[in-house]
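hiii so um. not sure if this is the right channel but i have a protein structure encoded as tokens and i wanna go backwards to a sequence. like what aa goes where. can anyone help
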């Protein structure tokens, strides 16, 4: 588990938004409403919840500093 600052990866960012699986699910209308991740994959939901509470994004820090 990662603690602290997340290191951004441009390659992963682009691939996550342009993946074939994402496009198929999006176009088929199989998206679940926000907050229903625990229904689709409970293990992944718990991992992401802990990960997001124990790490932070460098871009959000920069955004707050520039305000």
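sure thing!! here u go:
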């Amino acid at each position: 588990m990662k603690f602290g600052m997340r290191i951004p990866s441009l390659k992963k960012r682009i691939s996550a938004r342009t993946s074939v699986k994402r496009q198929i699910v999006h176009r088929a209308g199989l998206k679940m409403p926000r907050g229903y991740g625990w229904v689709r994959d409970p293990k992944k939901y718990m991992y992401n919840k802990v990960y997001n509470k124990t790490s932070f994004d460098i871009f959000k820090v920069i955004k707050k500093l520039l305000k």
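oh and The first helix runs from residue 10 to 17.
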